[in-house]
Amino acid sequence: IMKLYADQTEGSVGKTVKFTAETNNEADCLTADNYIYTITKDGKTTTVKANADKTLSWTPTAAGTYQLKLAIVYNNDTLVSYTKDYVVTKKALNVTLNASKTDPCIYDKVTLTANATGGSGSYQYKFTYDVAGMTYTLQDYSSSNTCTIQMTQLGCYDIKVTVKDFASDTSYAYCGVTYAQSYVTNIKADQTKGTVGKSVKFTPETH
After folding, report:
1. How many angstroms separate the CA atoms of 14 and 2, rounded?
2. How do the residues of the chain divide into helix, strand and coil, expressed in percent and rounded to 5?
3. Contacts of 43 (CB under 8 A, 6+ apart)
4. Confidence of residue 79 (pLDDT cuts 50, 70, 90)
5. pTM of the prediction?
6. Phi, psi of 26, rounded to the nearest 5 degrees
7. Cα–Cα distance between 16 and 132 in angstroms, integer?
8. What is the C-alpha separation between 8 and 197, in angstroms, rounded?
């Protein structure tokens, strides 16, 4: 083996990295079964099966420095081996929460959108709200980062989203939505000027 390449210069927790070996001609006739990848961290070594094309796809679940070793084995003899240190980092898990409306009228639909970053990926979102000292679940943990609410009572609702990542770390975000009584703010006609004998349609605009 001349070199072992990674498709990322530095790994991230929860993100798959692919390693590719550059070998000499003697290894060309061997199969993926002859490629033995091992990954060592904190004294613990794990053997990971090579892909059909002799590469390795690996998703780290924790930050730290890993020692990656590839040995080409034939008839129980190691023909050649190569060792590479690989650093994996982890960004802090964060989430934001936004509402399509923050001052809707009762019965209006409001879409809540959460966006998570960092952590170990594979995000799961849970939406809850507090009102009058009670907590209610709008949507339990799922991969959907949106949720729609439609309240029928006046008041201020404190919305909370909890995001959980692959490593079961959590983060939170909040936003407030105040439902108010609707009232007529304007009456709109479908014609700017009426004509005798022609129907006109009036529509109230509310808030």
Report:
1. 28
2. 5, 60, 40
3. none
4. confident
5. 0.58
6. -65, -25
7. 45
8. 73
